[in-house]
TrEMBL record:
Name of the protein in question: 5-formyltetrahydrofolate cyclo-ligase
Top-level taxonomic group: Bacteria
Catalyzed reaction equations: (6S)-5-formyl-5,6,7,8-tetrahydrofolate + ATP = (6R)-5,10-methenyltetrahydrofolate + ADP + phosphate
Gene Ontology terms, MF aspect: 5-formyltetrahydrofolate cyclo-ligase activity; ATP binding; metal ion binding
Organism, scientific name: Flavobacterium rhamnosiphilum
SUPFAM superfamilies in the cross-refs: NagB/RpiA/CoA transferase-like
Residue positions binding substrate: I50, E55
Sites where the protein binds ATP: K3, K4, E5, L6, R7, R132, V133, G134, Y135, G136, K137, G138, F139, Y140
Top-level enzyme category: ligase
Length: 187
């Protein structure tokens, strides 16, 4: 399927989820993450969900990271350049929604991309080869291309994989894993 078609399909599927279903699925994803070989790493980048888009609730993952004493990094979007600026998430970090309802840090201690060990990647859909479909602005492909070569890229999905995303291009960066409420996909 084409990315455009997949975006429409999965946005519609998300809309049908009840708040309770979304919470249960988000918790199941967090529990599955415990089985991945990532917990010796230090710097974990995570997205804060756009609740209006019914994105996976990453609060459960934040609790895991906190309980394991990990350094947590969140980003702020620059829509002019499609860059993400990364900040250490601390008790003092103020979070505010931007004009697109994306929760972002207001300011804080900036962290360079090359320090990050693990990135939890938001997505709408993914395929059996590890390609993903996001919202189409290219923020994460650009960000992941700036990370060190051995960064672990983990997609978080509410739904299982598609067979094939047909309009992949050279700048698309593949995932290493994708975790759903039901399974762990390794690529």
């Amino acid at each position: 399927m084409l990315k455009k078609e997949l975006r429409q399909k999965y946005k519609a599927l998300r809309k049908q989820l009840s708040e309770n279903e979304l919470e249960e699925m988000s918790l199941a994803v967090a529990n599955k993450l415990l089985k991945l070989p990532i917990w010796e790493k230090t710097y974990f980048h995570i997205f804060l969900p756009i609740t209006e888009q019914k994105e996976i609730n990453t609060e459960f993952i934040l609790h895991l990271l906190s309980g394991k004493d990990k350094e947590v990094i969140v980003s702020k979007c620059d829509f002019k350049t499609c860059d993400l600026v990364h900040f250490l998430l601390t008790d003092n970090t103020r979070i505010k929604k931007n004009e697109y309802n994306i929760p972002e840090p207001v300011d804080g201690i900036e962290v360079p991309s090359h320090k990050i060990d693990v990135v939890f990647v938001p997505l709408l859909a993914f395929d059996k080869k590890g390609h993903r479909v996001g919202y189409g602005k290219g923020f994460y492909d650009k960000f992941l291309s700036e990370c060190k070569s051995d960064v672990i890229k983990i997609g978080l999905s509410l739904f299982e994989s598609e067979e094939l995303i047909t309009d992949i291009f050279e700048g698309d960066i593949k995932l290493d894993y994708c975790v759903t409420p039901y399974s762990i996909h390794s690529f």
